[in-house]
Amino acid sequence: MALLDPVTVEITVPRDPEAAFIAFTENFNEWWPRASHTISREECTGIKMHPGLGGEIIETARGRTPLTWGKIEIWLPGEQVAFTWHPGWDAGDYTRVSVSFDQNAFGHCVIKLVHWEWENLGEIATAVRDGYITGWQQVFGDVFATYLRDAKK
Predict the structure, then answer these.
(1) Which domain holds residue 139?
(2) Which end of the chain is less packed: N or C, by CB atoms within 10 Å?
(3) pLDDT band of 2, cuts 50, 70, 90
């Protein structure tokens, strides 16, 4: 299988990198669209990104065993977080996501999400990647960006 291009979404918001990093990681449960983008949908009671190297991203739901979505591989507060990504999949069928936080010359934060290693998914890699092109634009490019713009400084 040929290597598939990463899915990349970039946003620029009037926040500093440290605040944006905290919003993405510590406040993951506040901005993530649980009703539409979780395994358990309306039964979802929370999604938590446990901080630090080796921390896990876990979905909890009423009457269900917690589901691990991924594991943190890079934790650089205010700069970058990277993790494996396998929501609802076997942990061995993971992809990777990296989110970087940089300040531009105007004092705004440029946040770039890159999702790659689709080949780990085998025959379904192209279809899954294609779904994430619009999925990340909606979840990260629209929902998370709006959360940051609306959040109190």
Answers:
(1) 7-34+76-150
(2) C
(3) confident
Q: What is the mean pLDDT of residues 125-139?
A: 97
Structure tokens at 32: 């993530």
> What CATH code is carried by the domain that includes residue 90?
3.30.530.20
Which CA distances in Å does 130 have to 1, 2, 27, 67?
Answer: 16, 15, 27, 23
Q: What is the pLDDT of residues 71-126, one digit of tens each?
A: 999 999 999 999 999 998 988 899 999 999 999 999 999 999 999 999 999 999 99
* Residue 46 domain flag: no
Q: Return d(Cα 20, Cα 27) in angstroms, integer.
A: 10
Number of domains in the chain: 1
Q: Could you tell me if 24 and 32 are in contact, meaning their C-beta atoms sit under 8 angstroms apart? A: no
Exposed e or buried b per residue across 106-145, where buried means at least 16 C-beta atoms within 10 angstroms of its C-beta:
eebbbbbbbbbbbebbeeebeebbeebeebbeebbbebbb
Kindly state whether residue 53 falls inside one of the protein's structural domains.
no
Tell whether 59 is covered by a domain: no
Strand-pair partners of 11:
111
For residue 51, is it within any domain? Answer: no
pTM above 0.90, yes or no: yes
What DSSP designation does 94 have? -
